[in-house]
Structure formats: structure tokens, C-alpha cells
Amino acid sequence: MFTPPWFTYLIAVLHVRLDRARNAPSRGASAVEWVIITAIIAGVALGLATLIRTLVTQKQAEIQSNFGGGGGGTGKPPS
């Protein structure tokens, strides 16, 4: 079976890269940093979403109290 030279070269390059990645001393530190950064960003996003929801709910209650509960009419303007 004939294997093209470019395929053999590609396999050799991939083996070298995988070997370097497996034997790198700081390989796990990079992953831990990414997990920590992602957790911080997710926490900030969750905090902001909670804050925005609270503010919107408060403003909604204020608007409903100012308009007497929001109506319940027919949807037509008064005559």
C-alpha cells in the first residue's frame, strides 16, 4: 500500500506536537488558569443578570403601583 509523502510528514509533525504537549511542565497550569478565568467571568455575568432582574422587577412594581395595577380594560383608548 502506497502512503503519500505529505501524509507521512503530517503524521510525524503531529506526533512531535503531541509529544511536546504531553511532556510540557506547565501543561496543567494553563488549563487551571482558563478554568479560573471562566469561573470568574461566569460569576460576574450571573451577578449582573441578578442585579438587572432585580432592578427591572422593582421598576415594574413601581410602574404598576403608579398606574393602579396596569388596567385590565378593553385595550381601546378612552372616548
3D structure, described in words:
- Keywords: Membrane, Transmembrane, Transmembrane helix.
- This is DUF2970 domain-containing protein.
- This protein has helices spanning 5-23, 27-66.
- The chain is mainly α.
- The protein has a domain at 30-59.
- It is elongated, with a radius of gyration of 30 Å.
Q: What is the average per-residue confidence, as pLDDT, rounded to a whole number?
A: 82
Number of DSSP strands? 0
Q: What is the chain-wise order of helices and strands?
A: HH
Could you tell me the strand content as a percent range? under 5%
User: How does the helix and strand content classify structurally?
Assistant: mainly alpha
Keywords: Membrane, Transmembrane, Transmembrane helix
Protein name: DUF2970 domain-containing protein
Organism: Sphaerisporangium dianthi
Key structural traits:
79 residues, mainly alpha, elongated, DUF2970 domain-containing protein
Quick structural gist:
This is DUF2970 domain-containing protein. Helices cover 75% and strands 0% of the residues.
Task: Please render the helix and strand layout as text.
Blueprint (H helix, E strand, L loop, with lengths): L4 H19 L3 H40 L13
